[in-house]
Amino acid sequence: MSTPTLKPTRPWKLTPKQRGLIVLNLVIASALSYLIVLLTPMKGKLAYLSIFFIATIVINFAENYFKRGLAAAKDSIATSFAAAGLIVAVVPIFSILFTIFERGRAGLNFGLFLHDMKLNGPNDPLNQGGLLHALIGSGIMVGIALLISLPIGILTAIYLTEIKGIYSRPIKFLVQAMSGVPSIVAGLFILSAIVFPITKSSSGLMGGFALAILMIPTIARTSEEVLLLIPNDLREAGVALGGTQWRTISLIVVPAAKSGLITATILGLARVAGETAPLVLVSGGGDAVNTNPFQSPMGSLPFYIWKGFTFGTTESIARSWAGIFVLLSLIFILFIAARTLSGSRSSK
Amino acid sequence: MINPNEDGNEDMETKSTPSSLSDVAKANQARKQPGSGALGVGLEARSIHAWFGDKLVLRDISLDFWSGTVTALIGPSGCGKSTFIRTLNRMHEFIPGAAMAGEVLLNGQDIYEQGTDVTKIRLKVGMVFQKPNPFPSMTIADNVLAGLKLAQLKSENKDDLLEECLERAGLWNEVKDRLNAYGGSLSGGQQQRLCIARSLAVRPEVLLMDEPCSALDPGSTLKIEETIQHLSSSMTIIIVTHNMQQAARVSDYTGFFLSDGGPGELVEVGPTSEIFSRPKDIRTENYVTGRFG
């Protein structure tokens, strides 16, 4: 029997008075840090921040100690450290994003996506030339890497989680070790194993190979984690319906893990899209659009960025920042796509 | 379509009078005398032993299952009932470290004989698991027909098969308008009946049910029990259950498993009415009357 005047309340939420107290604490802490910096030889932004942090902890501790006792006071210290950790982690990320947007803005224009640098030097005005060749090169090389590493990575993960053959342990170890390989080593490997002895020239295909070496462990490890989350019930149900192991894997386990496998793939793409070192070694870099991965050097976004910075003029550096902006936006779009694709299943 | 038939009504009444367990069992017995209408011995377990690693978990179980009967396996947790039924369709070997000894004869053929195609065995001996496990990536219709795809079977008319299986599982009326919804959108009891429909689609001769109602509410349990009774006319059903009233309601025969800390053993097996009214072994009597376990 509820009366119509009853209003829904949330007694577990902070009251305005409590909110006011929190703000008051922060104000006192700021004032305190200002005074201390003013009166002591400690100076600078770092001094403000650290004194503010210590003051907040002390004030919160005191308030909670007198109101609710020692346990609550300790709890408030932990909360303060957690909040500080959050700020330390998040501020640099936003700072980086802001800097890239700020500096990349100057070099951004629509022509960027229509022209290459065949006829323009890095010192030319920003409205001439573009990074079409780098965009296409990155697309082709990352595409080649994806074609190679997607099947290898996912099949490796299936071997490790489903088939669990006798080589599982060494392969698991190898995959983990491979994911720690510095990217330049992948480049050097392709250079010494294929480019020098066989092709004798750099090309987009070689770049794709080098990126694939970096991409396989990322995809394999993430896919392995995803497949391990699939409940064993489903495998048993598939086998109990008269399916062979392979049909159970391909018709039930992999479709059930689909969204996670897509995420794994996109993480792998994002991992290699910004790789510079191996591409400098094996795909060279060109200023003209090259759509043939089998012949002649091929440009890429990271290479374009690197080249602009090494030139060192105002225009070339502005070009590089614009390149960074484009690259980061692409990776960002990939991540959003991954989130959307993996989220769409759970909402059903 | 499920009509509350006489058996169903009787079941409802039993719930309010738990003392009449043996009466229900007797009534069931009257409904189906052993051997009457049976198609001959379908599945025979001969001296089954099972191990996990070095640990013997089942000792010397021999049990026959007539075609067209329902056999309930009861006993406390951990006495090897589930392990036993998993040896009957070779799901036991799916667990790492598992081993077994003995023979399981399906129509006279040992299913563990060298060269036997294990996937064919599992087609003939279907299984319903404790937790409802519809395939999450598939619709209701796809779930029912998943067995055909998995086992690469051909079906003349998939729509008819779909309807028939859902009908036999007592789910058709509830889902016929949303066959393209995902299996996970159903309630727990409906999911379990979907899993039963899924096992029926490959036309098994034997259906193993491993505590199919333990995760379900009484209403869904009743529906599944009705389903079991409908199915029992056309196939052999072996059901593991912790619910003794359920064993009394649905089964023709009951086997009592027990482990005294060591491997599980079959203490007694017989017509359900006898197991619940005058068991031969004192341990069975203690268990079915609720004095332990």
Automatic annotation (TrEMBL), chain A:
GO terms for cellular component: plasma membrane. InterPro entries: MetI-like, MetI-like_sf, Phosphate_PstA, Phosphate_transprt_permease. GO terms for molecular function: phosphate transmembrane transporter activity. Keywords: Cell membrane, Membrane, Phosphate transport, Transmembrane, Transmembrane helix, Transport. Signal peptide: none annotated. Residues 135-336 form the ABC transmembrane type-1 domain. GO terms for biological process: phosphate ion transmembrane transport. The keyword Secreted does not apply. It is a multi-pass membrane protein. It is found in: Cell membrane. Gene3D superfamilies: MetI-like (1.10.3720.10). The chain crosses the membrane at residues 21-40, 46-66, 78-101, 131-161, 173-196, 202-220, 321-341. PROSITE patterns: ABC_TM1. The keyword Plastid does not apply. Belongs to the binding-protein-dependent transport system permease family. CysTW subfamily. This is Unannotated protein.
Automatic annotation (TrEMBL), chain B:
It holds the Pfam family ABC_tran. Residues 1-38 are annotated as: Disordered. InterPro entries: AAA+_ATPase (IPR003593), ABC_transporter-like_ATP-bd (IPR003439), ABC_transporter-like_CS (IPR017871), P-loop_NTPase (IPR027417), PstB-like (IPR005670). GO terms for cellular component: membrane. The lineage of its organism: unclassified sequences, metagenomes, ecological metagenomes. One of its GO terms (molecular function) is ATP hydrolysis activity. This is Unannotated protein. The keyword Transmembrane helix does not apply. GO terms for biological process: phosphate ion transmembrane transport. It comes from freshwater metagenome. Keywords: ATP-binding, Nucleotide-binding, Transport. Residues 43-288 form the ABC transporter domain.
